Amino acid sequence: MRKKISLLLVLAVSTSLTLAGCKQKSKEYVESDVIKIGVFEPMTGANAAGGELEVEGVKLANKLYPTVLGKKIELVFTDNKSDKVEAATAAANLVEKEKVNAIIGSWGSGNSMAAGDIVMDAKVPAVAASATNPLVTAGNDYYFRVCFIDPFQGTVMAKYAANTLKAKKVALLQEVSSDYSVGISKFFSDAFKDLTGDKDAIVAKSSYNTGDQDFTAQLTNIKMQNPDVIFAPGNFTEGALIIKQARQLGITVPILGGDTWETPEFLEIGQKAVEGTVFSTFFATETPITEESKTFLDAYRKEYNKEPAAVTALSYDAYLVIINAIERANSADPVKIRDEIAKTAKFPGAAGYITIDENNNAVKDAVLKVVKDGKFTYLDTIKPEE
């Protein structure tokens, strides 16, 4: 009996140690001949056009810079399907099954936020190209971004409305199912009230959901309030439809938006109705900033035979920031990559110089663009201190 108990005890201890060893091993970095970078983007669903633009940038960067530390870089693509639940599943697949060393993505702040706890718990760094909501990186040591954030973007557009357009009253039309749209609308609203000194400067605030097609009720209410400007940041499809329907209802005031409008679909859907609309974004092909800007533009035009979107330049930069961190760390250990990404300072990317601040956000200029003759056209550059 004593022997039997002793044997059971040995087996139990052995099993416990084996499980502990496996658990510990899963958290340790294991050297490989290939370095994997996960690409976490919406390739289907409402945000697919934005995801496609970012995928283009990553593929181009990988074509130009296919190795680091003498090892091949393998891109592992996963579709978050423009859905927060699917986004969490996609991120988990990258860190648990694919064992990627770092992650790029996602277009859409909500998609990025859904992956936040997953990358943090797995200790795998993620770099968002264009996710601007502050909550993407807040309290998360493993999530970074190479774009500016919405408090800055919202303030830029509020200043444009108040100072350039001389607006006194603004109507808001937000995509309530989008963390991005709700966040930037609030930052715009707060800044515009401060600039005008009028707590009642927002005369209407209406909402819609992703996928809605008819905005007649919201626009009719807005028209009755007689605003000087409408601020309607949201997805490119709904944004273009809003502008078309506004013009059909006889609303002629300027309509402003954010970086999510900069897709070919916005122009295709909006057509002549979107002429003259102004929005904030990250990069203008007319004003290359660094030598890498020129390298990117030349390579992109040759590869895709078109002009790049700003988010494409940013996803290209996200890739470069990661491989630069790997070089400086002299390791593909995700934790060491994370530590070096956090130290990034004045890195010359395609969309400008990148410095990561103490909150894992990039300090960057904003670019204003206007739709002119059916094209996105550079209007102005706004620096953070302005």
From TrEMBL:
Keyword tags: Signal
Domain Leucine-binding protein: 35-372
Superkingdom field: Bacteria
Family (UniProt): Belongs to the leucine-binding protein family.
Lineage, top ranks: Bacteria, Bacillati, Bacillota, Clostridia, Eubacteriales
Signal peptide: 1-20
Keyword Signal: yes
PANTHER family named in the record: LEUCINE-SPECIFIC-BINDING PROTEIN, PERIPLASMIC BINDING PROTEIN OF ABC TRANSPORTER FOR NATURAL AMINO ACIDS
Name of the featured protein: Amino acid/amide ABC transporter substrate-binding protein, HAAT family (TC 3.A.1.4.-)
Organism in which the protein naturally occurs: Clostridium intestinale DSM 6191
